[in-house]
Amino acid sequence: MPTLNLFTNVPVDAVTASDILRDSTKAVAKIIGKPESYVMILLNESVPIAFAGNEAPAAYGELISIGGLGQSVNGKLSSTISEILETKLSIDGSRFYIKFYDVERSFFGFNGSTF
Question: What single string gives the DSSP state of each residue in 59-105?
Fold first, then answer.
């Protein structure tokens, strides 16, 4: 159930969005060690964002997972997602924050229940 919610102030065309969704899904699944079928990626483009006092290309992400997170994994995820955003949207890694949430099963709903 890892869920990555990405926000960027960059407009994203359909082909690039599809590439980001695919690449991010594969990366999150591989790094956390969960099946791709459990991973959800949300891409919110053209969101007004100011970072360091200007509106140059920037992004913010939140990754929520039931387990699988920790210092080493979070570092790999941050680096990999940053690389995807830099490659696909020209967002410099110094203009990207990501917050990680390791949640308990009872705090995540699915299929009309909790995990």
Answer: EEEEEEESS---HHHHHHHHHHHHHHHHHHH---GGGEEEEEEE--G
Q: Do β-strands 3-8 and 59-65 pair in parallel, antiparallel, or remain unpaired?
A: antiparallel
Residue 38, SS3 per DSSP: helix
Catalytic residue among 2, 11, 35, 48: 2
pLDDT for 70-79, tens place per residue?
999 999 999 9
Count CA atoms within 13 Å of residue 47 on its CB side. 13
pLDDT in tens, 19-36: 999 999 999 999 999 999
The question of whether 2 is a catalytic residue gets the answer yes
How far, in Å, CA of 18 to CA of 16, rounded?
5
**Spatial separation of the C-alpha atoms in residues 51 and 96, rounded to whole Å:** 9
φ, ψ of residue 57 to 5 degrees: the values are -50, 130
What is the Cα–Cα distance from 107 to 30, expressed in whole angstroms? 23
